[in-house]
Amino acid sequence: MMDIKKRSDCPISSSLDIWGDKWSLLIVRDLMFSKQCTYGDFLKSDEKIATNILASRLQMLETAGVITKQDHPESKAKVLYKLTQKGVDLLPVMIEINLWADKYFTLPPDRIEILKEVKKDKDAFIRNKTAELAEHL
């Protein structure tokens, strides 16, 4: 197990120590929208994460309590990764990042549709999505 070292007591710095690299929130994103993923599922994402980086980030997120791994029901050679409550609690952060990106980037159609729902009632969207994710803990 790896230790997560804090650079300071600043809440932003401490949070970035867990999910501030360029891959960790993409892993969280995939789990938020797929609910569970195998190692191979992560490797298929458009961002093309290298296997050594993926292994390192999964281990770090598990150590930090953001994700958990479980035995795969259909294969002893695979494991399923899922968000923990700590991971689900990143949903409002992910929503805000998406809203910021919507102002400055061209988003894919599926993300635009999600953000339309968010913009109608952000609090309700977060409540409903959190409840949906909590069902899969």
CATH architecture label = Orthogonal Bundle
Question: Numbering strands along the chain, what is their spatial order in the largest sheet?
Answer: 1-3-2
Question: Given the C-alpha coordinates, what overall shape results?
Answer: globular
Distance between the termini: 22 Å
- Determine the structural class based on helices, strands and strand pairing: mainly alpha
How many domain regions?
1
Which stretches are low in confidence, meaning pLDDT under 50 for 5 or more residues running? none
- Could you give the count of β-strands? 3
CATH third-level topology = Arc Repressor Mutant, subunit A
**Element string (H = helix, E = strand):** HHEHHEEHHHH
- State the fourth-level CATH superfamily: Winged helix-like DNA-binding domain superfamily/Winged helix DNA-binding domain
Total count of helical runs of at least 4 residues: 8
Major sheet details: 3 strands, antiparallel
In CATH, what is the class?
Mainly Alpha
Walk me through this protein's architecture.
This protein has helices at residues 11-19, 24-34, 39-43, 51-63, 85-88, 91-104, 109-120, 122-134, and strands spanning 36-37, 67-71, 79-83. It is mainly α and 137 residues long. Helix 6 (91-104) crosses helix 7 and helix 7 packs across helix 8 (122-134). The chain is globular and about 45 Å long.
Give the topology.
Layout: H1 11-19, H2 24-34, E1 36-37, H3 39-43, H4 51-63, E2 67-71, E3 79-83, H5 85-88, H6 91-104, H7 109-120, H8 122-134
Antiparallel strand pairs: 1-3, 2-3
